Amino acid sequence: MRILVTGGAGFIGSHLIDRLIPEGHEVICLDNFYTGDKRNIQKWMNHPQFELIRHDITEPIRLEVDQIYHLACPASPVHYQYNPVKTVKTNVMGTLNMLGLAKRVKARFFLASTSEVYGDPEIHPQTEEYRGNVNPIGIRSCYDEGKRIAETLAFDYYRQNKVDIRVVRIFNTYGPRMLENDGRVVSNFIVQALRGTPLTVYGDGSQTRSFCYVSDLVEGFIRLMNSDYVGPVNLGNPGEYTILELAQAVQNLINPDAQIKFEPLPADDPRRRQPDITKARTLLNWEPTIPLQEGLKLTIEDFRDRIKSAV
Ligand code: UDP
Fold first, then answer.
1. Does residue 91's CB lie within 6 angstroms of at least one atom of ligand 1?
2. Dihedral Cα 51, 3, 11, 304, nearest 10 deg
3. Which of 243, 244, 265 to mutate to test the pocket of ligand 1 (most atoms within 8 A of CB)?
4. Which of 50, 118, 136, 281 has the most CB atoms in a 10 Å sphere around its CB?
5. Can you spell out the DSSP letters for 179-234?
6. Model's pTM, two decimal places?
7. Is there an atom of ligand 1 within 6 Å of 208 CB?
8. Looking at the annotation, which residues are catalytic?
């Protein structure tokens, strides 16, 4: 098949491409390099099954493809809040353009949505039926509401135009190739511990998240894309940790003497987040296989190499 990956030079997109090319597919990687990085796709640059297009999806594009994995959007709060209007445009106009493309060429369309559609959840763990508790005018809204309208668009194209859609809701994911300045908690703690600066815990560190290793997530993507189920489907690791527990895990793996510094909790920071993955388990026979300790070790190795080579 010929497969388009928007955001293909990003953290998750590039791991997805690493799976698709060895399976024999032709891959078109589309990226505007806002948070994507050429190093992530360097190894495919001269490969006959790979094509790179520098393009911003807020502008239309004409391509002939069989499947579209639509991942393009900054996903870390630091990056998506840097230019919130652009984040909204990427989710609204970008998703419209990609759904228009899917409709024209009759491609299957996969939307990378997010656990952020649940906002600061009132039910725990979150099932796909839960409609969320999202602030429409807060600093996270450009992403949360952006992804909610992206889901609405996908389902309207499905009902109105018979576009063949698949929708996943991704919970916190980590692994090699996260940007050093990504701003999210796993990469922040690892970079801080490796550089010998204090680990910045926001609030009292009692808020929780569930961390999924990137290869597990990509396996779930491929299973959903090639199944008959439309979604939405939660993909994430149900293991729930407080942020303070995560800081201690990183300390134990890198430097038990690393300091912890408490900083103010950002606005609208969700208190708890944990996926209910019953749907993924029963419909896709999927569940995460990499425990946090193991995934952290693999991620730390990758950061160690990059930080060493930068010095
Ligand atoms: N966080 C933290 N220190 C950091 C970065 C994040 O304590 O250096 C906290 C943040 O306040 C949130 C959790 O870790 O409660 C996860 O934040 P992240 O930005 O990774 O993703 P989110 O799940 O909020 O989108």
1. no
2. -60
3. 243
4. 118
5. -TT--SHHHHHHHHHHHT--EEEETTS--EEE-EEHHHHHHHHHHHHTSS----EE
6. 0.95
7. no
8. 143
Residue given tokens 């493809």 in the structure block: 65
> Atom 5 (ligand 1): residue with closest C-alpha?
185
C-alpha distance from residue 276 to each of 113, 151, 152, 169 (Å): 15, 19, 22, 11
Cis status, amide bond into 288, omega within 30 of 0 = no
Q: Does the beta carbon of 274 lie inside 6 Å of ligand 1?
A: no
What does the CA dihedral 219, 175, 210, 115 come to, rounded to 10 degrees?
Answer: -70
Dist. CA 270 → ligand 1 center (Å):
9
Ligand 1 neighbour 207 (Cβ under 6 A): yes
| Nearest-atom index, ligand 1, CA of 273 | 23
Pairwise CA distance, residues 258 & 54, whole Å = 40
Coil/strand/helix, residue 46:
coil
> pLDDT tens track of the chain, all 311 residues?
999 999 999 999 999 999 999 999 999 999 999 999 999 999 999 999 999 999 999 999 999 999 999 999 999 999 999 999 999 999 999 999 999 999 999 999 999 999 999 999 999 999 999 999 999 999 999 999 999 999 999 999 999 999 999 999 999 999 999 999 999 999 999 999 999 999 999 999 999 999 999 999 999 999 999 999 999 999 999 999 999 999 999 999 999 999 999 999 998 899 999 999 999 999 999 999 999 999 999 999 999 998 876 65
Please give the distance, rounded to the nearest whole angstrom, from the Cα atom of residue 50 to the centre of ligand 1. Answer: 34
Cβ atoms within 10 Å, residue 144: 24
